Amino acid sequence: MPKLHLPEDLTPVLDAVAEVGATYEGVFLVGGAVRDILLGERGFDVDIVVEGDAIGFARVLAAALGGHMHPHEKFGTAVVRYGDEQRIDVAAARTESYHAPAALPSVEHASLRDDLFRRDFTINAMAASLKGEELGELLDPFGGHGDLEAGRLRVLHDRSFIDDPTRILRGIRYENRYGFRMDEHTTTLARECIATGHVGDLSGARLRDDVIALFEEGDVSHSLPRLAELGADKEIHPHVVADAEAVALFDRLRELNARHELGVPTWRLGFMTLARTLPEDEIDAWLEALKIRRQDAKQIKAAVTAGPRIAGSLRADSLSPADVVALAEPYAPDAPLFALALDEVPQLHDYFERLGDIHLEINGADVAGLGLDESPRVGEILAELRRRKLNGELDGRDSELAAARELIAGR
């Protein structure tokens, strides 16, 4: 087999393995790290498989690297951290069995070949030795290197998607990221798995995480239509529509989010895109089933329900700046962002660029200090002062105080 040219970034790890790995039969770099080295990618995760006691190996590896390790006894795995937040995942060679479709697996110690066979696609089922004269030697029992060169995604066995339906979404991400395509047999298996409802067997949290990962890839020009082509969009929700319009909306949301520096998480923009076609009375239950945090769910729902109303109101009427803020602010930033993505409304650009940052220089204590007892009236006066300031009628603290005195005197 050919030898892999291991990048210089791995030098500290290779030196540490050379120091501590002599008593272990095999120490291997595996999975995505091997794939990414072959693709010339940088910044990959380092995953090591050991033939033997992985936790014991991780302990001595961490010591050799001057770092520390966190064991996971139940799974026989460990995480080693060292240097400037560098991380190595260490596991014993193992095989997995699934007692039911989409269930979490049971794990048993096994050979390296068995360990590679349990993985999702052949391009992730390669390993490179990290020991001695075999350093860098590529182990590729299932033809992953050839598939990588051909841009082909191929599962290792016919039950792969049934065992773990999230592999379908992962495959779509790989297609999108690398320009690869599932081969005909793999595509057929994906369609069959979806048609028999196994994606729906996933827990809400697992499905959520893979949908989030899909959107965090950024470019979804292939991913969303591919979901629909395979029928997986309806497993996310029966009313989800993953089409060219969805791609355009997501791209527009990302562009506006970046332009106005709103900081809305990319994945939340994605869920707004998917939720746009859901009946309003189904949104809460859907987001709850996916275990979306309550505050995020509130923003997503507000975007797709209040957003179109905001856009419609701004199209229909010529509103004052204060009226624009009154429409947008209760649902900011997601709903006005969604409204702007639906319709190029200049007032919303003004809201994000200027109006949203206009605030009073006085506060409730200042108003109370003018002789008004603490009461709901203080809040009413502050609201009226801000309305005037937004409309350009007040400029600075002195004018705000003068207007407050007039309002108090005229009550």
Total number of helices: 21
Low-confidence stretches: none
**Rough outline:** elongated
Q: What gap, in angstroms, lies between the N and C termini?
A: 89 Å
What is the tally of beta strands? Answer: 11
The structural class is alpha+beta
On the 0 to 100 scale, the average pLDDT is 91
Give the strand order of the largest sheet, numbering strands 1, 2, ... along the chain.
3-4-5-2-1-8-9
Task: Draw up the topology in text.
Layout: H1 11-20, E1 26-30, H2 32-39, E2 46-51, H3 54-65, E3 68-72, E4 77-82, E5 86-92, E6 94-97, E7 106-109, H4 112-117, E8 127-129, E9 138-139, H5 144-150, E10 152-153, H6 160-163, H7 166-178, E11 181-182, H8 184-195, H9 204-216, H10 223-230, H11 233-236, H12 244-259, H13 266-275, H14 280-289, H15 294-316, H16 321-328, H17 334-342, H18 346-353, H19 364-369, H20 376-390, H21 397-409
Parallel strand pairs: 2-5, 10-11
Antiparallel strand pairs: 1-2, 1-8, 3-4, 4-5, 6-7, 8-9
Helix pairs in contact: 1-3, 7-9, 9-13, 12-13, 12-17, 13-15, 14-15, 15-17, 16-20, 20-21
Could you characterize what this model shows?
It is a single chain. The protein has 21 helices and 11 strands. The protein has helices spanning 11-20, 32-39, 54-65, 112-117, 144-150, 160-163, 166-178, 184-195, 204-216, 223-230, 233-236, 244-259, 266-275, 280-289, 294-316, 321-328, 334-342, 346-353, 364-369, 376-390, 397-409, and strands at residues 26-30, 46-51, 68-72, 77-82, 86-92, 94-97, 106-109, 127-129, 138-139, 152-153, 181-182. The strands form 3 sheets. Strands 3-4-5-2-1-8-9 form a 7-stranded mixed β-sheet. Strands 6-7 form a two-stranded antiparallel sheet. Strand 3 and strand 4 form a beta hairpin. Helix 12 packs antiparallel against helix 13 (266-275), helix 12 crosses helix 17 and helix 20 (376-390) crosses helix 21. The chain is elongated and about 90 Å long. The mean pLDDT is 91.
